[in-house]
Structure formats: C-alpha cells, structure tokens
Design a protein that fits this description.
Layout (H helix, E strand, L loop, with lengths): L4 E7 L18 H8 L2 E7 L5 H10 L23 H7 L3 E6 L38 H11 L6 E6 L11 H4 L17 H30 L6 E7 L14 H4 E7 L8 E8 L3 H8 L15 H5 L12 E6 L14 E6 L2 E6 L13 H8 L7 H8 L5 E5 L17 H17 L10 H5 L10 H16 L20
Parallel strand pairs: 1-4, 1-5, 2-7, 3-4
Antiparallel strand pairs: 2-6, 5-6, 8-9, 9-10, 10-11
C-alpha cells in the first residue's frame, strides 16, 4: 500500500463548535462536514495554547509550548533544534509545502531556519476575495501549483493555513451576504445584542471562506485520484477572536474543531470523545507515514489508533484529559510582561492556575464586541461582561462541565470543591514537572526574558533599552543570565 498523503487544513482563530458538523447554526461548512461525515469527528480536541505561535509550534514539533523555550511566546522564534514533522517527512521522501500561514507569527531567521518550519511556501496565485478584509491569497490555486510541481510517484504533506477567520473583518459583511442574526448562538460571557451577533456573523462568513477553499482542494484531489489515500485534518489553531476566548485557556480559548478523513482506513460516520492535544498531531502523522513515533523526541502521543478504529464515543480510556497553557501573548502590559496560565481539562472540569494574576488579563483583540464591552465598565447591564473580560482573576479557577462550556461561575473557592481543586492542581503540576516546565521549577522569569519580534507599542530603541533595564533589575535572579544576552550582558546581535 502506498504511503498516505497528508493535507492539514488549519484555520486561524477557529473555535469549537463553529462548524455545521457540530450543529452550529450560523456557520455553513459543507466541505468540513464532508470530512467529518466520511471520517471521524472529534469532540475534545484542544490546542496546547490559546495563541498562534505556541499552538502551531506544538502541532509541528509534538511538544508542549513550555518545552519550546522561545517558541512559547507569540512573536517569538522556534529554535532550530526542535524538528518539525514536515522536516521529518521530507527526510523520509515526502514532498512538502504550505500556503499562507504556517508557523508564526515570529522570526524564522532568528530561529536559525531558512524557511518556515511548516515547509516551503506556495503563495504566488492571488484572487479577489469576497470582502475587503479577507486574504487575497488564492489558497486552492496555490495548492494546485504545489501539486503540479510534485513528482507523480511522491507522497505529499501540505499545510493549508488560511488567514480566515482572524480579524480584521469587514463590518456587517455577514449580514450583507445573507446571514441572519437569529441564527447566532451567543455565549454567556458576551452581551446578547445585535452588535455582537453581527460581529459573530462576520466571523462566520470568514470561516466559510476557509471551508470553500478546502472544498476546492478536495475536488482537485478527487480529480487526480488522490483523495482516498490522503489524510485530511480540519482544525483551528486557537479560539475565536472575541473577549474571554482567544488568548485565554477557557473553553473557547483552546477547544477547537477536528475532523479527520482517510478513505477506507478511517471508518466513516463516527464521533469520538477522546481528548487529543495539538502535541499529539506530529506523532500521529509520522506514524501514519510509516515511521515509529516512539523513536522520535515527542511528548505527545499518536492518536492514529482512534482515527482508524471502528469505535465511537471514548475509544481509548486513557485519553481522559489534556493540558493547556500560555505565557506572553502580545505587548499588552508594562514591560511586556506575560500572563502565565496552565490548565487541565477533564470530562467533568476545567481547572486553571494563574501564576501571576496581578499582571492583569489584557489580551483581547480589537473588535466591535470588544469596544462595546470596554465602553460598558460603568453600565449596569454591561459591567458583568467587563469583569469577565478584564476583571482581576484569582489564582485558582474551577469550572464544571455540568454548568456548560462558557466558564462563568468559578467554584474553586467553594468548600464543596476544595478537594477536587487540590487533586487537579497536583495532577497538573506533577505532569508539568515531568515535562520540565520552567514555570513550575521556579524559573518562570525566563519566559518574560525571551525576545519579542512583533511591533511594540513604543519606539523600538526605547523598547530595547527598557526591556534590558527591566530584566536586569527585576526579573533575573542574581548570578543568572537571561536568554538573548551574551556574557557581557549585551543583547544578542539578532535582537
């Protein structure tokens, strides 16, 4: 049997359950639905982090963000020593490529790499997008260009990374193109009003653009007789860009869709509840390609057995939880401090540990919804949403599945849940220690020392001086040298 092809379709900022395969009424995603219908739909897929750079780094390397050094941060780098599954498959004879967004955002050059960690780019073909804010990359045409240059007898591994549904959106575009306010399911942490519903419809229209190009890629594979021997995975890199979702480890920050199709190798029409993590993707794909993931430096473990099983529900009893976390997302705090969080998700609960809650959770993408909530700090009807978004959080948070996925009522301080909090905290911390998380080992300051390659909200020269002085004076324990500085205490040249 020939080795399988691999097509990973990853949308930018796509939350569970925003595909129509999950029953979402305001998104129409027939091609993703086809993947689910002719394969398997996962109900418990989670990114390792609620932010692009870290989650994509995990997917590519099979490691957790806190194991990736600078790769843990948005606008960081992915050190060259961490091999990615496309590199491994290329060495094994695969033709690899990507269109649009692979790993990132961050500095490929500072990573010591000559190309994006997801593979060589195919971005030449352009199109006229449906709205002014959608990407002009013709994703499907660029996939065709990749297929045209590929030797016929060579298996391929292609990364389709759409810009959509990342913000910005053309305001009112969802309504303009026939979507209906009454179809939107507004989560409890957002105000249920026309402005928020319209914003969510704009998001939905962008999800549909991602799905449309996926359909064109599947049609090309079918036309060339490659579809049945291609593993297709459809997912998103983190939660949708709304308050209390993206950049948080609440349900809609890390819980993402996953549908997988692989012809007759993946029995169709199944839905499973096994917990899978982005750290599990790389070992799964290298195993599917005929390699042994046990021999490779992965922390995640393959779920190929779940994909190929005929069972539904919980296929592997050991897949009963996942870990997520984050450090710095963007330049949102004085001195570019992060907001360190770790969490464990089980069937019954979501436990979150905020290591430095006093830093403030300020990471919220600009949007009509964000502006509405921000303006409502003194409004009696909106104040609760302001607090949910920007209010100071306690060190421990616990949310029960029985109360739904919106994570509104924190029961961590309830005596009834005291034992459960202690058990989950211990389970989380023990796993993090085993994985070598610096945050658990008392070296969390290293994350705030890693360089930031995005555009800060201050002058670049002042930014560098300010960071240098701050790290020297406050973050770095005496006698230790922060990453990014040489022995003389000077910033490394690439900074």
């Amino acid at each position: 049997m020939p080795r399988p092809n691999i097509l990973l379709a990853i949308a930018d900022d796509l939350s569970w359950p925003h595909l129509s395969a999950y029953g979402c009424r305001f998104v129409n995603s027939p091609h993703s639905d086809r993947v689910a219908r002719e394969g398997v739909l996962f109900h418990n897929c989670f990114t390792t982090a609620p932010t692009c750079t870290a989650s994509r780094g995990s997917l590519l390397t099979g490691l957790y963000p806190w194991q990736l050094e600078e790769g843990c941060q948005l606008w960081g780098l992915l050190p060259q020593k961490y091999k990615t599954y496309p590199d491994i498959l290329e060495e094994a004879g695969y033709c690899i490529g990507l269109t649009n967004k692979g790993w990132g955002p961050g500095s490929v050059e500072a990573s010591g790499r000559k190309r994006n960690p997801a593979g060589p780019s195919f971005d030449e073909h352009r199109c006229e997008p449906l709205t002014s804010c959608m990407n002009g990359n013709d994703y499907a045409a660029n996939f065709r260009a990749f297929m045209d240059q590929k030797p016929d007898d060579q298996p391929f591994c292609f990364w389709y990374g759409s810009k959509e549904p990342h913000r910005r959106y053309e305001k009112g575009s969802g309504l303009k193109h026939g979507k209906r306010l009454e179809d939107v399911d507004v989560p409890a942490y957002l105000p249920d009003c026309g402005e928020v519903r319209s914003d969510m419809l704009d998001y939905a229209l962008e999800v549909e653009r991602f799905d449309d190009d996926l359909g064109k890629m599947m049609a090309l594979l079918e036309e060339r007789g490659e579809l049945e021997n291609t593993i297709i995975l459809v997912t998103g890199d983190n939660g949708f860009p709304f308050p209390r979702a993206k950049a948080t480890v609440y349900q809609n920050g890390c819980h993402v869709p996953l549908a997988v199709r692989w012809g007759s190798n993946c029995p169709s029409g199944r839905e499973v509840t096994d917990f899978v993590s982005f750290a599990d993707f790389a070992p799964t794909l290298v195993e599917a390609a005929g390699l042994d993931p046990i021999e490779l430096p992965f922390t995640g473990r393959s779920f190929l057995d779940v994909i190929c099983s005929e069972a539904v529900g919980r296929v592997d009893a050991s897949r009963d939880h996942v870990l997520t976390g984050r450090e710095r997302h963007g330049y949102n705090r004085p001195e570019n401090l992060g907001y360190p969080m770790r969490s464990i998700v089980t069937d019954d609960c979501l436990y979150i540990h905020n290591f430095e809650p006093e830093n403030g959770a300020n990471d919220v993408d600009g949007s009509p919804t964000q502006e509405l909530i921000w303006s409502g700090k003194e409004d009696p009807e909106l104040r609760q949403y302001w607090e949910l978004t920007w209010g100071l959080r306690p060190r421990d948070e616990l949310y029960t599945a029985a109360e739904g996925p919106d994570c509104i009522r924190n029961v961590a301080g309830d005596p009834e849940y005291e034992e459960q909090v202690a058990i989950l905290r211990e389970r989380l911390f023990d796993t993090l220690r085993a994985q070598g998380d610096p945050r658990i080992a008392g070296r969390g300051w290293v994350f705030d020392c890693f360089p930031y390659f995005g555009t800060p909200h201050v002058d670049k020269e002042k930014f560098t001086d300010r960071e240098y002085n701050y790290y020297q004076k406050r973050l770095v324990p005496e006698g230790q040298q922060p990453p990014g500085m040489n022995a003389a205490g000077e910033w490394a040249k690439w900074m």
